[in-house]
Amino acid sequence: MPLFFLTTWTMIAFAANSVLNRLALAGGCIDAASFGAIRLVAGAVMLAGLCLALRGRIDLRGPGRVAGVLALLVYIYGFSGAYNALDAGIGALILFGVVQITMFAGGLWAREAMPPRRWIGALVAFGGLAWLLWPGAGPVISPLHGLLMALAGVGWGIYSLAGRLNRDALQATATNFILAAPVGVVLTLLWPSAPGGAEIGRDGILLAIASGALTSGVGYAMWYSILPRIGASVAAVAQLTVPVIAMAGGMIFLAEALDLQFVMATALVLGGVAISVLPLGRVRRDR
């Protein structure tokens, strides 16, 4: 498959996680904790199968394993819990913005070189996110669910930073899912159920399996096969499309409304990230 189409399908898979999660919870066919647990188990099974098929083994060792597993659990359950109330596009934007801020902070902690454009881009992106979340400034967002998605963003950011320590990304991701899945199942069993909460129906289970096995498992595997073939800046820019795709999916499948202030906040967040990651000096030299 040509690289462009492979990258396009991967970004669609990432955005589909938001749509599938919101579709399951908005339809009342499953609760957030059960969705997260089934997603983890389905992802673990799929990734384990891919490791056995492509690597011939599953290696549970590796650096940053505890941090990776804990961060994955925070991401999965924060993500699922947030979509009890957030629209797909808004949730993806909060997630994406906080991931970038977390990784920026991680770079500062590791004393990486931070050129001025990266500071400018981070401030622009943070301003757009703050504008979106500020009470009364944009679409009505539940503070609790906005916080849950922000925690999910921190979790995914830390997970990505921990993943830099591993040479084999597919093995590391499979191992993290395999180790996190039983913990997630126990957490779900211990999770207090809300009175009159959603029952676990067939549609909810199928959506969670699709999210775990296909848009997470296969999606991550495709992404790891793409990364060695494209530059870091191309990879970063490609991910800018994820919140936009999620917003379009929410409008098509969930009849979510498009708000002007949300569009403007999206432009600020994605524009700020683009300023941070695009190698502007190299682009000028190439011209």
Automatic annotation (TrEMBL):
It is a multi-pass membrane protein. It comes from the Bacteria. Residues 147-277 form the EamA domain. The keyword Transmembrane helix applies. GO terms for cellular component: membrane. InterPro entries: AA-Vitamin_Transporters, EamA_dom, EmrE-like. It holds the Pfam family EamA. Keywords: Membrane, Transmembrane, Transmembrane helix. Coiled coil: none annotated. The chain crosses the membrane at residues 36-54, 66-83, 89-110, 119-137, 143-162, 174-192, 204-223, 230-254, 260-281. It is found in: Membrane. Its main location: membrane. This is EamA-like transporter family protein. It comes from Roseovarius marisflavi. The lineage of its organism: Bacteria, Pseudomonadati, Pseudomonadota, Alphaproteobacteria, Rhodobacterales.
